[in-house]
Structures are given as C-alpha cells and as structure tokens.
C-alpha cells in the first residue's frame, strides 16, 4: 500500500496571496540590520567566533601533548609553564580546554544541524501529507518526546561506546523531535497558501511544493530552531560526558573535563572546573543569543 | 511564527541554573561543624552505603550473605577459629576464638580441636557438643548453606568424633594443607547453643533432634524461620544466649543496629565500648555529610576524596585507608579470534606488563591508596604465601625494554604501532598463529563510574603507546562488563572482548588462604580469559592439599612469571575516617569489622 500525499486544510485557514517570510519581504540587508540591532546577539556571535578561534587556531599557537599522560606533573596549579595548571594525569589544562572544545563545538554543531535536517524533513512531510499519515508521524514524535533523551543516551552508551561520528548521529537522532513539530506547524499554514494550490493545479509535484515553496518559506523558523538545537546539543554532549558515558581517553570534551574535575571541588583546584564550566555556559548562552537575534531579524511582525 | 518564547525562557532558566550549579560547586560546601558523638560509652559506626543488616543467625544462607551480617553475628557468637586480619596480618586470632588449639595429624588427614574453658551468657559451658550441633546442621542442610562448594566442606569432612567436652577430632577425605584447612574451612564453624536451639519448633522441647538428618533439617527450618523475623531479634529469647562480646540491644528493620556489651563474656576480646551503634546510609554522600556534621565516629569517604583529608583531620578525624585481601588485574581473552594468538605469546604479555608503571599508578593515580601487585597473592599485607619472585616484580617497568622485546620477536614499529613483520614459530619470530601484518592493538572493556579508574586507564594507554601497543578503552557499568566478558571459545559471538577490567575496588577478594582454583585453574569458574596451563593446574591442586606453604609459593612464582592476566595495583577496600581517640584495632583486610577491639583511648 502506498500513501498518496494530499494537501489538507485546517478549519479557519484562509488562503494567502504571497509568502509572509521576513527575508523575502524585507531582504537580507534588512535582516542583518535587525540582527545587528540586537546587541546580545552580536556579542553571542563574537563569543562563538572567539571560541572557534580558541579551539581550532589556539593549538597552533599553544602546543601541548594531549595524548600522553605525564604522571610527574599532575594537579599543578597555574603557572608560567602551565597557564591553567594541569589535571589529574598531567595534561596541560589550557591545551585540554582547546582539545575538548573542538569536540564539544564540532559535535554540538553537527548534531544540531543533523537534528534540524531530520526534524525539518519529517515535520514538512507530516504537515504536508495531513490525514492519517500526519497523525501517525506526529504520534511517533509525541512518543519520542515522552522518552527523556538522557535515558535513551544512557541506554545507548551502556550498549556501545561511540566515537565522535557516532556521538553526532546519536545526538542528532534524539534531538530532531522539537524541530519536527515546529516545521510541521509552519507547513500546515504554508500548504494552504494560494501559490501552493496554484502549483498543484498546474501539475506541480508534491516534492516541488515542499522543496521549492514550503521549506524556503520556513527557513526563518528552521534557522532559529537550528541555533537552539546546536546549544542544546552542546549541553547534551556535556551531560553524557559528565556521566562518564561520552568519549573515551585520550579524547575529551568540556563535559568530560567537568566530570573529571568534580572531585577537586573540595580540594581548591578551581582550574579543573571553572574553565570548562564557563566555556559550556558561555557558548550555550552565545548560541541562544544568536537564536534570539535571528528570530528578531526574521520576524516580520516587529518590523517598522 | 516563532513559538519559542516559553521554551526560550526555560532555556535561559536552564542556563542560569547551570551557572548557579557550577558556582555552587566552585564555592564548595564545607558542611556544618556538628558536635562529636564520641563518648567513652558508645560509638557510631557507619555501615556501607545502601546496606541494611538483615540476618542474625551465624549460619549464612545465599540470600543473606554479606560480610557485615557476618561481622555482626561474629560479635554475638564467636567462631571456632577466628582466622582473619583483625590483628594486623592474616592469621588465627585465638583471643576471638572458641578453640584454643588445633592439632593436625602428621598425615594431614585429621585435626583435633581443643576448646577453651568458655561459657554461654546464660552460664552453661561451651562444649564439643555445641560444635557437633553445628556440624550436624550443616551436613544435613549443606545445599542451603552459603559457604558450600561441592567437594569442599562439609563434603571433605568425613566424621566428627567427640573425645570429651572440650576436645573433638575432625577427619578429612584426604590430606590437606593445615593452613588452608584452618583458614578456609574450619574458620566457617561457629559453636551454637545446642542446649537451647536443638529443637524442631519454638514450642518443642530441646533434645538431640540434630542427630538424625531429618531432625537436623527440622532444626534448620526452625532457626531460619526465627531468623527471618528481624523485628524480634532484640526480644526473642532464642537470640539472648550468646558467646561473643556483645548482645543485641535493638535491631531495626530500617537498618540501625545497637549492640550492648555482654557482661558475662569470658573470652579474650572483651568489649571496651558498652554500646555500639551501627548506622545505615543510603548513599556515600549522605554518609559523608554525617561525617562532616560529626554524627559518625567511624565512617568512610570515596577514594577520590582522599585529597580532602585536611578537611576531615581539621574536624578531629583520622583518615585511615583500609586495605583489602584482594588482587587486581585485567584478564586477557586467550580465545579472542583477533588477538588471542598474540596473547598466547609470553613475550607479548611480558611487553605489556613491562609497559605498566605500577609504582607511579599507585602513588599518583591512587593517591598512595594502592600497592603494586605482581602476582596472584595479595601484596597489600605481608604474608607467607607470596613468593620472592612475585615480591621482586619479575617484569619491572621499562617501555624501552618492552619495545626491544617485541622487535626481537619479529615486530616492527609502523606508524607508531607494533606490527608483526616476521611470522613464524622460531625464537625471533612473532609466534604460532600470529599472522604477518598483525597490529598490536588491544581494547579493554572497563568499569565505568570511577575517575580513578578512568585516570589509570589513560595512564596505561599512554605508557603502552610508548611501547607501540595500541590500547583503546570502552567503558560500561560493572555488571555489564562482567556479562560482556564471559568465558568463551573463539567461534562464539561473545568472544570479541579482548581485555576486561572490573577492579575499581579490587578485582577479587580472597578468603584467608588465597587459592587460585576458581581464577586460574583451566576449569575455574571465574577464569574469564580461559587461561590454561597444566603446570599451574597442578600447583593449584598442590597448594590446597600440600602440608606446606611451599606449594602456594610456587604457584605465586609461576603466575607472577607466566602473566595469565595483566597485574595491576591493588587499591584499598575503603578509605576510613576515624574519630581521634578511637583506637586499639586493626582494619581487617578480609573486610570484616570487630567492635570488641574498638576502644576510646583518650588520645
């Protein structure tokens, strides 16, 4: 049995003559101007850029051995030779912050994008198809949301120990549900616009309707959701690693560093906790701020 | 449409919460300075987290087998032979025993035990009949007894002959090592008050019911039924007649036990502290909080918290690591289809062992709470079982030596990893079954949840890399590690594991006599990696039956040299935190506690 996509119609939905997308309506230049007007968003962007430079360019300027342990230099406090001290197995903590940051940022970014892509495709298909297909697809989403992501991650981690690619896939697969809901809601509105009906009337395919009209007009929702997904994914990586179920040595990430440094809380070794903790908080806040700025930039309602 | 406002607030709240949490962590919580509960009349002892005492009968059943239950029961009913570590070394503590002498026949096939002139708390003498009562119960109900192992006691005890009220002879099915018999079998006997307990029901008259197997089963059922009623432990007259230094004052089903000194005790280990409060805790964190607030006199902390020693000493405590009678190791899977052939080469195992810096691991990673272990006999305590070969470490740490050992056997460094370039069976080749191009890469499935273990694995990975041996780490909860690393044959799907680690608190705890029949004998039930060496099998058998310790020392030397597993540092059983002024005792490495030895010294 094959399903036939049938554009549905919501009661009360009136046809609209043109896309209401902010970018399309006002142009990218206006969107950039509105983004820049949000100071917090600009600061957020600067923070993210700085952290990317810190993690990817920093090791070229401040080279450390993050593969081998040095048991003669453990738990050293910050000094000229180790600007942020060393950890319990003798790794330079500043170098480790860069090394772990690479993983946190790459996994967070990639998993956030993956989750958004999956969620977008699922939500668009469900919203456009309508009827029982929509009902079934969204119940899958509801069921997925009902199971805490952390629980799924713990179970998966107990079964296997993922590397970086595996972690990206796993986090992406547990994080796509919210974007799916957002895009589905957007699609329900867009599919009843006149230009979609016109496309169908002149023989346009469902794929073309979704790919050329509905998704491009949902881009603002998708982009904003993506920034929040990235922030959430970075936090999820930290959660999983904090619980000791993340990457295996010598690899690490900021959550893993926090977990390893936790026992030093009562010992006054602040350099094992404060830097990775602040890094997670700053980057997550920064991505959230960027998301806020993008929402302002795309939001047609606040435009004057 | 941007339906994200609520989610956004929540997200910001989460971020703020995370910031506050991190700040709180950094600020630290030093805990309240409570007043000490220490007084000369009582002591508060913290039981292990998540454990509540639930058995009083000094005969363990599998459902109630816990060392803390055993410790409580031994304070009430003294064992015939207290063979433990309570005196500082593993040995027979005669002061805490009912028996005063054990004379083995020259042929090692029997022993004559002499009882001390001791009395029950109701004034009746402790006699050979009380031992015979225990013997009859165990013989008739061995399948229900937690200490039973086929072929061992009571199967290998052929008869108990009472010579008089204070002497009896136990005969064996063959000749046994005296020390092994004392330490692993006779130490399980506890004289029971036959004049009160030898009956089929609470209303039945006391007689010689135990003298027939059927009667002994009835007595067993009666005693076990009574022991299931925890709320009656303090009031049931059955439990009032004791031989040990304490009696039960109260026994809560929630886990708190209060012991009171037995004023009629006439043994060698009289209680110094009249009231002992044994306190249960749900978590180690809860117990640590109680310690910080001064509610516990004898407690513990996590090994990872050892660097907080100063905060406890500042509160009037001593931090005393409690060493265990255990060994720690990583078994090789000799049946692994990829690496099994490499593991079977002794030179390869030597190279691995020489790449592990146990001294540094013990001092740095374990904060000095572990000692290097080089063989199958625990080394945290001095004993007569350790061979000079094991003690002297046959394979000292040297990655350079390890590397040259591999290159001398047909391996070459290719891109940082040793690779077999000369397959074959001659002395300069890789060895039987090792194919050309085989990379020396191993993966360990390691116990998760311990920072110390994670750090140790990182350090091992690092030093093995210097030799050119790849070592990847996969972690899982300990139960998962044990279930995923079973004994297997190379064709089985379950045989893909290469190395296994489950020894965060020690891999294997021994009874007093550390035999390796279960661990390293070819058919041993806990021989995870399927190690097999007929000479070692022979030595293990001899170590339990030979009348001298020479056999066990030979076994120790053989396995220190043959490396059936990767030997690792032996960590402490517990990091104890003891109130200043509490002394007079040694922490028993068999993981039992002995309240009668505790005393407030006033220092």
TrEMBL record, chain A:
It comes from the Bacteria. Pfam families: BPD_transp_1 (PF00528), OppC_N (PF12911). Its main location: membrane. PROSITE patterns: ABC_TM1. Residues 101-291 form the ABC transmembrane type-1 domain. It is a multi-pass membrane protein. The keyword Membrane applies. It is found in: Cell membrane. The chain crosses the membrane at residues 40-62, 103-128, 140-159, 165-183, 222-245, 270-291. Residues 1-23 are annotated as: Disordered. Keywords: Cell membrane, Membrane, Transmembrane, Transmembrane helix, Transport. GO terms for cellular component: plasma membrane. One of its GO terms (biological process) is transmembrane transport. Belongs to the binding-protein-dependent transport system permease family. This is Peptide/nickel transport system permease protein.
UniProtKB/TrEMBL annotation, chain B:
This is Peptide/nickel transport system substrate-binding protein. The lineage of its organism: Bacteria, Bacillati, Actinomycetota, Actinomycetes, Kitasatosporales. Keywords: Signal, Transport. GO terms for biological process: peptide transport. Residues 1-27 form the signal peptide. One of its GO terms (cellular component) is cell envelope. PANTHER family: PERIPLASMIC BINDING COMPONENT OF ABC TRANSPORTER, PERIPLASMIC OLIGOPEPTIDE-BINDING PROTEIN-RELATED. SUPFAM superfamilies: Periplasmic binding protein-like II. InterPro entries: Peptide/Ni-bd, SBP_5, SBP_5_dom. Residues 100-522 form the Solute-binding protein family domain.
